[in-house]
């Protein structure tokens, strides 16, 4: 039996985050592994308590199917593992690094992501009807 989907909360204004979501959508062809919602949106506020939201770093957030809340490099590793194949192999290799080092690398990229990758325009990208059920874009 397939595992239920994880919810990926992402920065809707970050071009790197936007590309990452597109990457995940393209590889989760049947939509069985991931659902997506912007950080700060209605689903984010509904699924994460105020203390959970207050303690989050500026990072991708994953709510796993079993309810765990993952951030930074641990969230990225989870996503890659769920993709399987070479992505999972690389993720397991990255997971061998100490968490402090992994998160330091993640944070360095996060701090410079707007400068390196830019921002997504104010207009949300058009999502096909087929894919729209995977996204909760309510403000």
Per-chain topology:
Blueprint: E1 6-10, H1 15-27, E2 34-38, H2 42-47, H3 50-54, E3 61-63, E4 69-71, H4 72-83, H5 85-95, H6 99-117, H7 129-132
Parallel strand pairs: 1-2
Antiparallel strand pairs: 1-3, 3-4
Helix pairs in contact: 4-5
Describe this entry's structure for a reader:
- The protein is α+β, with helices and mostly antiparallel strands and 139 residues long.
- It has seven helices and four strands; from the N terminus they run E-H-E-H-H-E-E-H-H-H-H.
- The protein has helices at 15-27, 42-47, 50-54, 72-83, 85-95, 99-117, 129-132; strands at 6-10, 34-38, 61-63, 69-71.
- Helix 1 links the parallel strand 1 and strand 2.
- The longest helix has 19 residues, at 99-117.
- The N and C termini lie far apart (34 Å).
Structural class: alpha+beta
Poorly predicted runs? none
Q: Helix-strand pattern, N to C?
A: EHEHHEEHHHH
Strand content: 5-15%
The share of residues in helices is: 40-55%
* Main β sheet profile: 4 strands, mixed
Instruction: Please tell me how large the radius of gyration is.
Output: 15 Å
The count of strands amounts to 4
Oligomeric assembly: single chain
Shape type: globular
Mean pLDDT: 86
Biggest sheet: strands side by side, in what order?
2-1-3-4
Termini, distance in Å?
34 Å
Number of helices: 7
